[in-house]
Each structure stands twice: as C-alpha cells, then as structure tokens.
Amino acid sequence: MQTDAKEGISKEENTVLESRVYRPRVNMRLCIGCGDCVVACPINKTADLSIDETRTILSIENGSLVIRNIHLCDGCGICIEACLPKAISLEFPIQEEK
C-alpha cells in the first residue's frame, strides 16, 4: 500500500476522497495538541471507551494532531467546533486534471 507522504493517506483512501466534497485539514501552526477534537469526534468513540485504531480518525501523537483513516470522516464538523485555536477545517479536495 503506497502512502502519500504529504497527507499520510494511502492511494485507496485518496480514491475515496476524490468522490467526496470535503476532507479534514489541520493547520499545524495553530494546533496546540490539546486533544479536544479527538475527544469530541463521534467516530473515535466506542461504547466501552477503548481505542480502536481501525476506527480512529483523530489522535494526538508526540504532542501533535494526526489524522488517520480519513475515509471514515463524514464531515460532521464537531472536531472544528471543539478546536479552540481553530486549527481544523474542512476543505474541498483539489482534483488534478488528467
């Protein structure tokens, strides 16, 4: 599985993204690594409060926000509301002409 180093997503995930009209983005200059977005994300939550890496979209690693499994994001915007420094946004993916 090849990964786009810039986005940290696989080619398969990128194919899914191309069919969507949004994707979460993080401005790392604004992110303070507080984790409020991680806690707020409804996809991250499980009934027993355990962490399921295959269903986690947002996580904090080494004090920085990491977006994983981007294809699971439904664009609800709850992470944006939870982010006090306004480091997260939903953006339209740029499609390159072939």
List the helices and strands and how they pair.
Elements: E1 3-4, E2 9-10, H1 11-18, E3 23-26, H2 36-40, E4 58-61, E5 64-67, H3 78-82, E6 88-91
Antiparallel strand pairs: 1-2, 3-6, 4-5
Description:
It is a single chain. The radius of gyration is 13 Å and the shape is globular. Strand 1 and strand 2 form a beta hairpin. The chain has 98 residues and is an alpha+beta fold. The relative contact order is 0.27. It is 18% helix and 20% strand. The two termini are 22 Å apart.
Q: Classify the fold: give the CATH topology.
A: Alpha-Beta Plaits
Strand order of the largest sheet: 1-2
Based on secondary structure, the structural category is alpha+beta
Name given to the CATH architecture: 2-Layer Sandwich
Inertia-based shape: globular
- Overall pLDDT level: 77
Strand percentage lies at: 15-25%
Helix content: 10-25%
The run of helices and strands is EEHEHEEHE
**Quantity of strands, as a count:** 6
Number of separate helices: 3
Radius of gyration: 13 Å
- Major sheet: 2 strands, antiparallel
Termini Cα gap: 22 Å
- Low-confidence segments: 1-6
Overall tally of structural domains: 1
Quickly name the level 1 CATH class.
Alpha Beta
